Automatic annotation (TrEMBL):
It comes from Luteibacter jiangsuensis. It is found in: Cell membrane; Membrane. Residues 17-422 form the Major facilitator superfamily (MFS) profile domain. Belongs to the major facilitator superfamily. Proton-dependent oligopeptide transporter (POT/PTR) (TC 2.A.17) family. It is a multi-pass membrane protein. The chain crosses the membrane at residues 20-44, 56-76, 106-125, 145-165, 171-191, 220-237, 266-287, 299-322, 334-358, 370-391, 397-418. This is Peptide MFS transporter. InterPro entries: Dipep/tripep_permease, MFS_dom, MFS_trans_sf, MFS_Transporters, POT_fam, PTR2_symporter_CS. PANTHER family: PROTON-DEPENDENT OLIGOPEPTIDE FAMILY TRANSPORT PROTEIN, RESISTANCE PROTEIN MDTM, PUTATIVE-RELATED-RELATED. Keywords: Cell membrane, Membrane, Peptide transport, Protein transport, Transmembrane, Transmembrane helix, Transport. NCBIfam families: yjdL_sub1_fam. Gene3D superfamilies: MFS general substrate transporter like domains.
Length: 438
């Protein structure tokens, strides 16, 4: 079934709907990362949880925030429709964020945020591909632009929610996250006319649904394989919100001058700041390569990114081990540099992977395909939570090196898979059998 693509002028060289999705996701990520920036600190400092238990709670919550999109994407594709799913999911998440301001509702609030996220996340991102016609090369870079929106929200969140939490009380930070979610919903509703149309009830007629044939099963088999490898990567990557903040609090010299100490939550904004700085450069570089016909296949690009993240963790481990052995704290300058390198690697794998899943999605299964990508975050965060329990049992340097090994293993697996299946991003025909393709 063909969905009408909104007509009209472009904004910034892309369909106007991309700007709507960009801003909607930016404020949703403001709420998500705002809560995340203070979650571990809230549990260990305010609720006085044991570090290992707090890491498990964090990992489990983050895992289910990625698991629920699997069911949410199916519900959006087959029942609610993407627009209704975004509205219902966003409203549920806003309620959960405001409930975080009440201590007795802590676990219930986490459940609501995870459930709402399940409807919101795949339903919003899966509308990107519908803004472009087949063969429109702009769709490749659209996900990188969308990823900037994610990180713009991520940049503001620690500065606003983190500062409110550290200075005035953690509950003020959670309330600010709730306000951000409401702003996201207002933007989405206000810009709905620029988004792809869909059936009124959000359900494709049975006659228009694509059957789950062999080609679809093979396509999803490949997507699941990629997602499984990304799980290994996320086991290391997700430490940036789990154990890394704990290390920044105790193992990093945050003194700036003689009279001011950098708030610990602010360091989580460096990642997003680096996204702003490097995304335009990387996109311009990839576009030039595509025009010359020398574009790097997406799976190889992902493998390169995982290798960069692996190297960054290993270097961080060496720094942490050396400073611990001398009874010193690592300078905040090293942490800033680490985040920059870490982010360059991230930009090669996470937005690229999202683009790959969007482009390989069989017609009629786009939200489900995007949900499969986010499903990797479920097991990845469970793995990260389990690995986080080792933080208090082993040296910090050794822990970071171990994370480097996990990221390195994912790089090797992605490279091997890329060699086997070839240049997938050149094939968008849903009937194309990618498994075993060269």
């Amino acid at each position: 079934m063909n969905i009408a693509i909104p007509a009209g002028k472009n904004w910034f060289g892309h369909p106007r709907g991309l700007t709507v999705l960009f801003l909607t996701e930016m404020w949703e990520m403001f709420s998500f990362y705002g809560m995340r920036a203070i979650l571990v600190y809230y549990m260990t400092k305010h609720l006085v949880m044991d570090q290992g238990y707090a890491s498990l709670v964090y990992g489990t919550y983050a895992a289910f925030a990625y698991f629920t999109p699997v069911a949410g994407g199916w519900v959006a594709d087959r029942w609610l429709g993407k627009r209704n799913a975004v509205i219902i999911g966003g409203s549920t998440m806003a309620l959960g964020h405001f409930l975080m301001t009440f201590e007795p509702a802590f676990f219930a609030a986490l459940v609501l945020i995870a459930l709402g996220n399940g409807l919101f996340l795949p339903s919003l991102a899966s509308q990107i591909e519908g803004l472009y016609r087949d063969g429109d090369e702009r769709s490749k870079t659209a996900y990188n632009i969308y990823y900037v929106g994610i990180n713009l929200g991520g940049f503001m969140a620690p500065l606003v929610c983190g500062t409110l939490g550290e200075v005035y009380g953690w509950h003020y930070g959670f309330a600010a996250a709730g306000v951000g979610m409401l702003v996201s919903l207002v933007i989405y509703l206000g810009g709905a006319r620029y988004l792809p149309a869909e059936p009124r009830r959000g359900v494709l007629p049975a006659s228009a649904r694509r059957p789950v044939d062999r080609a679809v099963r093979e396509r999803f088999a490949l997507l699941i394989t990629i997602a499984a490898i990304v799980v290994v990567f996320r086991g290391a990557y997700e430490q940036n919100g789990n154990t890394l903040p704990l290390w920044i609090d105790t193992g990093v010299d945050r003194q700036l001058g003689d009279a001011w100490t950098i708030p610990m939550t602010w360091f989580q904004s460096i990642n997003s700041l680096a996204v702003f700085a490097f995304t335009p450069l990387l996109v311009a570089y990839w576009v030039r390569k595509a025009k010359r016909g020398t574009e790097t296949p997406l799976l190889r690009r992902m493998a390169f990114g995982a290798a960069i993240v692996a190297a960054s963790f290993i270097v961080l481990g060496v720094l942490a081990a050396w400073h611990d052995s001398h009874g010193l704290r690592v300078s905040w300058v090293w942490v800033f540099a680490w985040f920059v390198v870490f982010t360059i690697g991230e930009l090669h794998i996470l937005p690229v992977g999202l683009a790959l899943f969007g482009r390989l999605a069989p017609e009629g299964f786009r939200a489900t395909s995007i949900a499969t990508w986010f499903f990797a975050g479920f097991f990845g965060n469970l793995l990260a939570g389990g690995l986080g329990t080792l933080w208090s049992r082993m040296g910090h340097g050794g822990f970071f090196v171990l994370m480097g090994c996990f990221a390195g293993a994912s790089a090797l697996l992605l490279r091997a898979l890329g060699t086997r299946v070839g240049d997938l991003d050149r094939h968008r025909d849903p009937a194309y059998k990618v498994v075993g393709a060269r």
